[in-house]
Design goal:
There is one protein chain. With 221 residues, the chain is an alpha+beta fold. It is 44% helix and 12% strand. The protein has 9 helices and 7 strands. The strands form 2 sheets. Strands 2-7-6-3-4 form a 5-stranded mixed sheet, with helices on both faces. It has a two-stranded antiparallel sheet with strand order 1-5. β6 and β7 form a beta hairpin. α3 (74-89) runs antiparallel to α5 (125-135) and α4 packs across α8.
């Protein structure tokens, strides 16, 4: 938990990489102390969260989280250990990952994610996030070397990436969900496919964030 809390303030990480221009994003805030907690809040709709619709749960049953992310988003990369801690603290939650594909510069990376997902290799998401963080700008050679290092059949991978209708459908579904619900940035977290957590100064530590998730999990659909 200490590692996750030391990454950055949760309120600054969420919905931080905007589409399409990320040049005006605020800098990450100072680390959150492990002892720092906020008083119990009365969570409010359209302030701490808002309702969204038509989110495909991809066979997940409540309680579950949907995370919209982008491999190249620094805030998504830094949010990963926080997300891991949330899932560790709330093991009843299922995580449904959806790679953003609204912006043109997200679509190649979305194709990579959904191809790996089709190959039952979604567990490579974390090392890929780490590689994107290290490389800053991924190249085709970087991707090929990554696939080789993880013993991924490249012929199968590139064939699926170029020709799979399922991969394209997943990309289109992700883009449609984000557009129709006006989700303009990543990382974005949705509880039970219904409640989009909003960035807010009130949600500035892990305990408060977990309390909000608990509050939303308990709500009637």
């Amino acid at each position: 938990m200490t590692k996750a809390l030391a990454v950055a303030s949760i309120s600054c990480l969420l919905v931080a990489c905007a589409e399409p221009d990320t040049s005006g994003l605020p800098a990450d805030s100072a680390a959150v102390s492990q002892q720092q907690t906020s008083p119990m809040l009365q969570f409010e709709v359209d302030k701490h969260y808002r309702l969204v619709n038509n989110i495909d749960p991809e066979q997940a049953n409540p309680p579950y989280l949907v995370e919209y992310f982008w491999f190249g988003c620094q805030h998504c990369q830094r949010f990963e250990p926080v997300l891991e801690t949330i899932l560790l603290r709330r093991p009843e939650l299922t995580l449904v990952r959806k790679h953003a594909a609204v912006a043109r510069h997200w679509q190649t990376d979305a194709r990579i994610f959904y191809t790996l997902q089709q190959m039952d290799l979604e567990y490579l998401t974390k090392p890929l996030l780490e590689l994107y963080s290290e490389k800053q700008q991924m190249t085709p050679l970087d991707l090929q070397q990554f696939l080789s290092a993880h013993q991924v059949d490249q012929t199968t991978f590139f064939n699926l990436a170029q020709n799979s209708e399922q991969v394209m459908a997943k990309m289109q579904r992700s883009a449609s969900e984000m557009q129709s619900n006006e989700i303009g940035g990543v990382p974005a977290l949705v509880v039970n496919g219904r409640y989009l957590i909003l960035p807010h100064a009130d949600i500035n530590d892990l305990e408060t964030y977990l309390a909000l998730i608990d509050h939303l999990m308990a709500k009637q659909q």
